Amino acid sequence: MMFEAEYATGWADATPEALAELIRDVYESGNPATALSALGILERWVNDHERELVSRAREADVGWPDIARALGRSRQAVWKMYRKTEGEAPAS
Known about the structure:
Elements: H1 3-6, H2 16-28, H3 32-59, H4 64-71, H5 75-82
């Protein structure tokens, strides 16, 4: 897989084209290890960007229920995952 070494430390700044190639590697690679490596890089990219977007949403006073709904998760699960910088409980 060509992106594994390139994004091992810099995958958070991957271009849309690089991400598209990783997605293709997941679905079209005949090698399960290559597909899993590509999937792992994509997962880290998504997790980092999700964390950043949740932080931005909270700074913009978006409530936990709205963030949870956007992510397709319960507000308790989202709050538990991202509350580290906040001491508030999720709204009912």
